[in-house]
Amino acid sequence: MPRGFLSAARVLNNLPNLVNGTMYTAARLPLLASARQTLGQSLCSARAQIAVSSLHSSALRAELQKFTMPAMSPTMQDGGIASWRKKEGEAYATGDVLLEIETDKATMEVEATDDGVLAKIIAQAGSKHVPVNSVIAIVGEEGDDLSGADALAKEAEQQSASASTSDEKDQTDKQSKEGNKDSASAEKSNKESQPQKAEPSNKDKGKDSSDTGKQLDLGDTSHIFASPIARRIAQNRGIPLSQIKGSGPDGRIVREDVEKFKPEAAAPTSSAPAPSAESSYEDTPLSGMRRTIAARLTESTQNVPHYFVSIDVEMDRVMQLREVFNRSSAEASKGDKDKAKASKLSVNDFIMKAAAIALKQVPSVNSAWHGDFIREYHVQDISMAVSTPTGLITPIVRNVGAIGLADISTESKRLAQKARDGKLKPEEYQGGTFCISNMGMMGTTHFTAIINPPQSAILAIGTTEARIVPDDSERGWRKAQIMQATISADHRVSDGATSARWMQAFKAALENPLSFML
Q: The whole model's pTM is what?
């Protein structure tokens, strides 16, 4: 507790002694009681102010504070610093954007929760894989002495490096113990499988022991200070750790050092072909989003038993209704092109609404697998796959079954733009109950999509194309706009007949789009 508050507390606690030890008149006693009450209220208020702290900051000194990497989602372990919106020494107010953080899904803004000054930036813009809760900046209040920011930043960096070294040492010790167990087990098994040989003489024993010791010394790299993951990558790639210069604390070799290592090229011989002027390939480092997509979809294909059901849908009435609606909206906009574009319905808006109607009729498809139970949802929160420069992401249009086409269209456009800009918040792409992937606008006629767990189904939409279909007229045929849709479903959650019923309900809704208006 600060010195001023401590003094106030002592005065408050000693008031009874002062009253008992001194002769006070009856007129003074009420004043003392009032003083005690006022002082007590002030002290409680001061204590409350001390207890309140920023969500992502904690005190390093009496004035300056450390600002740590926030967790933008429950599963986030690290992230990147896309940019700082404030400069060192610059003041900020509540609600100001301090920085942008890159996660595996999007780039998100971090707003200030109170007024202050950005004293020192520790994690610079462009930093990758910054652990959650690690110190990224030093902040203070206006009027604070910022001269100690550098010392606090250095202290925070040393603490972070020490914690990292300790964690990696524990992991190394664990792997070493496991490796020793495996080696001992393998050696024992090897000895048991080999025939017994005559025991060598003492002279031979000494010679063998000496030779073995020399061989172990030649292959021993335990003296090299490297992280466990750096050792593993180097071993897999056949890179000698002795040739790598470490950039970590105290010269420790870290993962980035191994990945950036380029062995010295051997001197070309006269018979070697001349090197090509241009490489025939290019290696692109994996982004955080691409790593997440790879991990989740690999897990899905390996652990989720997919099955597929396809159906053809006549889209003529949807096309006609969409044309009428968009023409009416354009006329109502009175030449305002931006307003007309914003209110324009897409085919995907109709598809999402039809999917929500089908989910209401066959709710078992609107479910998720949770290992010991299956959760069936009562709302239709539909994820829509959006392609971005960094990968695929699925923002969610909430409660589609309860909103109209215009609202679906507006929300879809808003979310798609935020996704392409990398500005989605976690709550805008986490927690969907069903997913739609539409590649019809790219001319794709048919494809199957991979389920995004824990969801149990995803709908793949192909392009709409003109076909000749049978007809009851005298001619016996007619031209129709046909779209093919395929649902991928989790066989642990539903059977083929269930998805077939869902597809029938989806087809019926799209082929009678006036039902959307009811």
A: 0.59
